[in-house]
């Protein structure tokens, strides 16, 4: 064991903490052990300098990761493959003769009116797996008891769960990203995203600058109180608007409405934090939290190396549209039925290799991911 004397350092630290001396550069190599990958020649006892230090305590780095992607997981099923989605078109009104009766006329009440039904089928599935091997007898050499080795194996299993959950998180975010991309592509087509604001792909920065005659840029918008107040108002208005029957808020132009209990509200974490900090008010936050399906998303596609790209999006959508948001996506409102993940089938098949005496395990997961462009989805961004 490497033992160091730190009396001098503690004396200096005490003087700095009590204001008796100014701060100075401290050599913390005398205190902090950064660890080594393996033992080296210095791992000898401090008595006879010949005995190898023994491991007195083993800490397995193992903690559960349940995932933090938006909760869009839907019912699973065992048999069959296809998801069939059936909806009825809203019928037109017809003239009523009650107040226009004429002598001798016949009024037909036996006319058959067939309901206009539209059916969609979703039948795509993905499977991914993460393999791992567990030895049967070899691992015993590194432990002094069965319970110690059990802790090691449990750490491996837990790490595999983390791997699966994280990948599932990212797939869910891609389903949401595709819905965002399809919505933006529908409103903008080949037009530049900073050239206008769509009705369901809303460039709030463009609306703000046009309304107030300002030239605020995307990189400064999150530090502007007036913009933050304006943008939060727009989002709240849309939450109310989507409750009304309309063709405006979905790509297909279908008559739809989304009550609050079926509305998912996913907002960019950085945007929410800036609204809370700069407006010095909990009103907006409390209203959002009160919604049944309100969640914050730390990034839409990835963090980048410095989290500076967390608000951006650059994808090719399922329909082949190229969409790139170089500013920031503030959030997305979507109907419960607009997107989701079905057929969640998690399993861990295993196989024993008797020749080399180890086990192979495959952590596998199936899922069907869908976007329904008939359902309401509204995107808010700045560019």
Return the structural class: alpha+beta
Identify the overall geometry.
flat
Mean of residue pLDDT values? 82
Number of strand elements: 13
| Helix amount | 25-40%
- Helices, by number, come to 7
Evaluate the radius of gyration.
Answer: 30 Å
- Beta-strand percentage range: 15-25%
What's the multimeric state?
single chain
Terminal CA distance reads: 58 Å
Q: Return residue spans where pLDDT drops below 50 for at least 5 consecutive residues.
A: none
Number of domains: 2
- H/E element order: HEEEHEHHHEHHEEEEEEEE
Characterize the main sheet.
5 strands, mixed
What would you say this structure looks like, in words?
This protein has 383 residues and is an alpha+beta fold. The protein folds into two domains: 1-54, no CATH class; 126-382, no CATH class. It is built from seven helices and 13 strands. It has helices spanning 7-17, 146-188, 204-212, 218-221, 225-241, 269-279, 283-289; strands at 83-88, 117-122, 126-135, 201-203, 263-268, 293-297, 313-316, 322-325, 328-335, 339-347, 350-353, 358-371, 377-382. A five-stranded mixed beta sheet has the order 4-13-9-5-6. Strand 11 (350-353) and strand 12 form a beta hairpin. The longest helix has 43 residues, at 146-188. The chain is flat. It starts with 6 loop residues before the first helix and ends with a strand.
């Amino acid at each position: 064991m490497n033992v160091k004397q730190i009396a001098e350092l503690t004396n200096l630290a005490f003087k700095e903490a009590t204001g008796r001396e100014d701060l100075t550069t401290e050599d913390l190599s005398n205190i902090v052990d950064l660890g080594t990958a393996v033992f080296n020649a210095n791992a000898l006892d401090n008595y006879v300098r010949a005995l190898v230090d023994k491991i007195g305590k083993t800490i397995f780095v193992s903690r559960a990761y349940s995932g933090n992607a938006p909760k869009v997981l839907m019912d699973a099923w065992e048999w069959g493959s296809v998801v069939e989605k059936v909806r009825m078109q809203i019928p037109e009104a017809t003239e009523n003769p009650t107040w226009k009766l004429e002598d001798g006329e016949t009024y037909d009440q036996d006319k058959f009116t067939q309901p206009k039904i539209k059916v969609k089928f979703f039948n795509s599935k993905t499977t991914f797996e993460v393999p791992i091997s567990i030895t049967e007898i070899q691992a015993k050499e590194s432990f002094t008891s069965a319970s110690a080795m059990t802790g090691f194996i449990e750490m491996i299993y837990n790490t595999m769960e983390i791997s699966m959950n994280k990948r599932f998180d990212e797939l869910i975010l891609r389903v949401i990203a595709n819905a965002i991309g399809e919505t933006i592509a529908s409103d903008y087509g080949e037009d530049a995203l900073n050239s206008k604001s769509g009705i369901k792909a809303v460039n709030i920065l463009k609306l703000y600058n046009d309304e107030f005659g300002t030239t605020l840029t995307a990189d400064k918008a999150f530090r502007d109180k007036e913009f933050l107040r304006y943008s939060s108002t727009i989002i709240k208005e849309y939450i109310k608007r989507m409750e009304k029957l309309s063709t405006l808020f979905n790509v297909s132009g279908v008559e739809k409405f989304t009550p609050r209990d079926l509305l998912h509200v996913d907002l960019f974490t950085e945007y929410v934090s800036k609204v809370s900090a700069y407006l010095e008010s909990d009103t907006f936050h409390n209203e959002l939290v009160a919604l049944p399906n309100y969640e914050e998303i730390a990034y839409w596609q990835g963090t980048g190396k410095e989290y500076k790209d967390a608000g951006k999006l650059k994808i090719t959508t399922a329909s082949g549209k190229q969409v790139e948001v170089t500013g920031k996506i503030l959030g997305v409102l979507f109907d419960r039925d607009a997107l989701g993940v079905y057929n969640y089938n998690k399993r861990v098949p295993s196989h024993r290799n008797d020749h080399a005496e180890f086990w192979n395990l495959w952590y596998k997961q199936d899922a069907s991911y869908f976007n329904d462009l008939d359902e309401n989805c509204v995107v808010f961004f700045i560019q």
